[in-house]
Design brief:
The protein has 212 residues and is an alpha/beta fold. It has five helices and nine strands. The strands form two sheets. It has a seven-stranded mixed beta sheet with strand order 5-4-3-6-7-9-8, sandwiched between helices. Strands 1-2 form a two-stranded antiparallel sheet. The longest helix is centred in the middle third of the chain and has 14 residues.
């Protein structure tokens, strides 16, 4: 998950399989950057989605990522958008309000020589109220203490941010239910990993939940 802020130290490149994972580091788990390690800020509220969660998510999205237009709305470390680009997304827009996190993300994108990436320093709600560009995949991983998810989902739906069959990924504390979703959305996947509940919705798709 990509929570807020802090300055990241750019990764120094691919390490051998035996290299220990250090604190404040995430690993890209698939695609052209598979195995690359990215350093992120040493802050207690910046928690990239665990490897297990990201692996499951991108298995769910396996047929949808290549060539897709992605929006990583609470970008933080950029873990989800970077994973999408690594797996062949055509573009990824990262939105993050903390200036240090923005600088770190820009540095890591430069290190990876990423194409198709844009970084916006902005508040999520303010950004969604601006000019819209329809996306195929949206990643929503707001701070766990936030109650912003329902409003964000509403803006995505009403302001033209979603393609007709867009996927919307959401993370939330496992003990808390999702808010009411827009009527055009159906929850197609839903799982739990420890304290994290993670969910995938799609516009216009029939419900198809995974077993707990």
């Amino acid at each position: 998950m990509a929570k807020k802020s802090g300055r990241a130290t750019p990764a120094t490149g691919r390490r051998g399989a035996s290299a220990p994972r250090t604190r404040n580091e995430l690993r890209i788990i698939g695609g052209s950057w598979r195995g690359r390690r990215i350093r992120f800020a040493p802050l207690p509220d910046l928690r990239p989605s665990p490897d297990r969660v990201r692996e499951t998510l991108f298995n769910w999205l396996r047929e949808a990522i290549a060539g897709s237009r992605c929006l990583d709305l609470f970008a933080g470390s950029g873990a989800l958008g970077l994973e999408a680009l690594s797996r062949g997304a055509a573009s990824a827009t990262f939105v993050e309000r903390d200036p240090q996190a923005v600088r770190a993300l820009e540095s890591n994108l430069g290190l990876l020589q990423a194409s198709g990436a844009q970084v916006h320093r902005d508040d999520a709600l303010r950004y969604l109220r601006g000019p819209a560009s329809p996306c195929d995949v949206v990643f929503l991983d707001p701070p766990f203490a936030s109650e912003i998810l329902a409003e964000v989902c509403g803006l995505l739906e009403t302001r033209g941010w979603l393609s007709p069959s867009a996927f919307i990924y959401m993370e939330r504390p496992a003990r808390e239910p999702l808010p009411d979703l827009p009527g055009a959305w159906n929850l197609v996947r839903s799982k739990r990993a420890g304290e994290v509940g993670y969910h995938l919705a799609r516009r216009g798709a029939a419900a198809e939940r995974d077993p707990p």
